[in-house]
Amino acid sequence: MFSEKLLKWYDLFKRNLPWRTERKNPYFVWLSEIMLQQTTVATVIPYFGRFILKWPELKDIAKASLDEVLVEWQGLGYYSRARNLHQCAQLLANAFPQSEEELRILPGIGPYTAAAIASIAFDKKAAAVDGNVIRVLSRYYALQLPMPRKEVHQRLKKLLPNKRCGDFTEALMELGALVCRPKIPLCEECPFLETCKAYKLKNVESFPLKHLKEKMPTRYTTAFIICRQDGALWLRKRPSKGLLGGMMEVPTTPWIEVKNAKQKTCVKHTFTHFHLEATLCYRDKPPDRDGLWVHPHDFKKYALPTVMKKIIKAGLKEFESVQNSFDDAV
User: Fold this and answer.
1) Residues designated catalytic
2) Cys-Cys link to 3, which of 75, 107, 161, 301 (CB 3.0-4.6 A)?
3) Which CATH class is domain 2-206?
């Protein structure tokens, strides 16, 4: 039986992860699932550790300010997750709903995350379909569809056991992460070696079938480096909604897809759906009053996204002492 084989493998080979406690902690499960969206386990582990050290329980993070959460989140990317995390914590305060339907109403929780939390935290019979699960079942059944999420969801529901539903959910993801990897899968270590259809076809890595990727657009901006004599830099807060909402930045022109012929790209950065190329421009006075002076020694007190750290570091090359302070700060 599929579930029995999978759980037996999981009991032997599962990783010791900080959110996998013997007694399931819904707060830990929720926090880890939000952090793991579009992010690797290795990257998440230190962030998760810092979060639960600073905010051990749901009620603690509910009392925190959004700026505090954004500061701790910086570097993890996809900052809307942090804003939704904070909003969700404030709505819940003490306890989580247990059903998929109730969980999906909450900020930042979509179909997959709702199913994962219901299953892992509360042992509900819920089909959580992420990239690992799609890959494992696409190969197991040799599904001839590109990224067949709906088909995988239907098949997964039929495989769910009546007991240990949470362990089953984690086990399937774990198999995809450790054995049924995107490239160079370790088929000889898989508990389903004899029944995997893709393996029998000797074409494992071609599953799941992929859509042709569209070329990502490039956007362009001018970033203004405004540095005071004492080394402080002029920063402003981005609008609360939208990309990098509520985080700090140096002033920039709108990010558009038309490049000025005179612009010379100094910094390049890639987001999920577009590339950004920034030209640096130096000014000695702020363009407006909507901002504040921040010394590099104090950068850690503010939520600076990675793209802004790159722009600042490139921009401060002319101010060597300040750049060294920035290196120490970040």
Assistant:
1) 33
2) 161
3) mainly alpha
